[in-house]
Amino acid sequence: MSGDPTTQELESFRGQVRDWLAHNAPKPPRFKLPDSFMEVGTDEQFNYLRDWQQRAYQAGYIGMSWPKAYGGGGLPQVFQHVVNSEMARARVPFMVNLIGLFWAGPTILKLGTEEQKKRYVPKILSAEEIWCQGFSEPENGSDLANAQMTALREGDEYVLNGTKIWTSLGAYAHHMILLARTDKSGPTKYHGLSFFLAPMRVPRVETTPIRKMTGEHGFTETRFDDARVPASCLLGEVGQGWSVALTTLAFERGAEGGQAGGLAMVPLQVSQVVELAKQVQRDGRPAIEDPIVRDQLVRFAMEERGLELSQYRMRKPTLTQPRPFAVPMMSKLVMSELRRRLCAFAVSLQGEAGQLYVGDPDAHADGNWQRGYMNAFSATIGGGTSQIQMNILGERVLGLAKG
Predict the structure, then answer these.
(1) In 62-125, which ranges are continuous DSSP H helix?
(2) What is the mean pLDDT of the chain?
(3) Using one digit for the tens of pLDDT, what is the confidence trace for 325-341?
(4) Burial track 118-137 (b if 16+ CB lie within 10 A, e otherwise)
(5) Which of 221, 252, 275, 304 is an active site residue?
(6) Whole-structure pTM over 0.85, yes or no?
(7) Which residue segments constitute the domains of the chain, with CATH numbers given?
(8) What is the rounded distance in angstroms from the CA atom of residue 260 to the CA atom of residue 124?
(9) Does residue 289 carry a catalytic annotation?
(10) 3-state SS of 209-263?
(11) Are 342 and 296 in contact, with CB atoms under 8 Å apart?
């Protein structure tokens, strides 16, 4: 298709997507699904979600704007926006290979060689190969530039030594995007870092599941002990890994578009909390009748609508002046914090029952809101904590001095 699609073409396409989802959305499984890719901890969860991504891709609804040469649809990005919005409306599951679809794939498309694009991108879309991220380390946390994992060149290989932590999908991944130090003699910690598309299924790479406060195992600790990877998996130039990582973070935080599409996590809408408020009691009456509860729900609804409109606004240059990057850069912070506060409010509505958890026969909705609240913190930490996001907005959007 050449040029921008007309409103009529988009509405016709929306109808097709809505009809396909009505007939092809996966049926609820007998087991509990995770809230996001950061909670996938069992084989049955993984296989169910992988099958869903493969079906959505085969139908042409994933990677719609990515080049056809690498397995994409070659269409304007607006078609993918339509699919994403309809998936959210239908509340279908998220895409399990999210790190590949949202971060690794776009980075490879922007900075990779032709060989790397052909090698990795099609299998990201099809979920044939799963990706994870190796940024955080046990002793560094949010200080990403202080990564201590080493990568030493030996012939046509690099030898990796070090540990990465909080590795989402680490137990299932075929590849990891990671930062490693190839030179320790640089003048600052930002020098000497290199960015790798490292294979996970090679000797001397070991993953250990991490049990979270929810009782689930969505993360792993990943250790590289003289693990050898091909030199061809280096992305960008040696020692220029920090600039590559910043590109990845721009995709991760929503500051740059071009992701392959699908949902990033189980949709959560204010309307669901409204329904909860109708079901639970406060002082012997439905909580929805409490004026304070209604007032808070209206405030949440206004925030939710503001976020929806912001997604449209950020695609209109005339509406984003004089700070064109403000809306996309704040999206991750605002959405993750809203989700956390929504879940906290939903738990508080349950009164004493809010103390009950998944598996308790007296827990409301099997403790899903309590589980959701605890899981919500992962999104406020991954990709830069909320506090770091606020600093970034203050310095790079508002032009404030560094504290």
Answers:
(1) 77-90, 98, 105-111, 114-125
(2) 91
(3) 777 778 888 888 999 99
(4) ebbbbbbbbbebbbbbbbbb
(5) 252
(6) yes
(7) 7-125 (1.10.540.10), 131-245 (2.40.110.10), 270-397 (1.20.140.10)
(8) 10
(9) no
(10) EECCCCCCCCEEEEEEEEEEEEHHHEECCCCEHHHHHHHHHHHHCCCCCCCCCCC
(11) no
